[in-house]
Hints:
The complex is a heterodimer of chains A (111) and B (111).
Chain A: E1 4-7, E2 10-14, E3 19-25, E4 32-38, E5 45-51, E6 56-59, E7 62-67, E8 72-77, E9 86-92, E10 100-101, E11 105-110
Chain B: E1 3-7, E2 10-13, E3 19-26, E4 32-38, E5 44-52, E6 55-58, E7 65-70, E8 73-78, E9 87-94, E10 100-102, E11 106-110
Amino acid sequence: GENVEQHPSTLSVQEGDSAVIKCTYSDSASNYFPWYKQELGKGPQLIIDIRSNVGEKKDQRIAVTLNKTAKHFSLHITETQPEDSAVYFCAASYNNNDMRFGAGTRLTVKP
Amino acid sequence: SQTIHQWPATLVQPVGSPLSLECTVEGTSNPNLYWYRQAAGRGLQLLFYSVGIGQISSEVPQNLSASRPQDRQFILSSKKLLLSDSGFYLCAWTGDTGELFFGEGSRLTVL
């Protein structure tokens, strides 16, 4: 089955700096890669996703890149703000019933 | 628009007591439904998923069970809770696009 590894587990950046979180996956058949943001005590919220037919997707300050050959994908947050502080999860799936998550990255943005 | 509700939001139960967490989805039909558990500071573990009424698949053997009595209702149950059942339980759904959306979570503490 699919195995998703995520790093770093914790990340601290200064407000205004960029943050990058990286994930690798094992199943070359995976074709959907979402990213979730989870604030304390709440459910994860889908913030961006990418499918295997594109290499990069951007939405304002966040972007995701995908390298299918190397089987890794990354989340990039530019101009970080304190409200970006949260736990971020990556995931990979081939079908609706088999989405596997990384262990999460706790991002802290220092004002 | 689609919404997902789960309750109760928090629950404190003694060891050996029963459990019932409920989840409903509005604004869609025939969704795939999921129960995840998140231990403190950990990632998301898939417990059960359902592709239709009465159809339940279990990912891991455990003290819990799930049922889907109606198209948009998913219930997580236990006859006798264990200390190790404590955690943050998340209901989620996917539609035709494959995007996974989570509820706000139910925090269970077993004492």
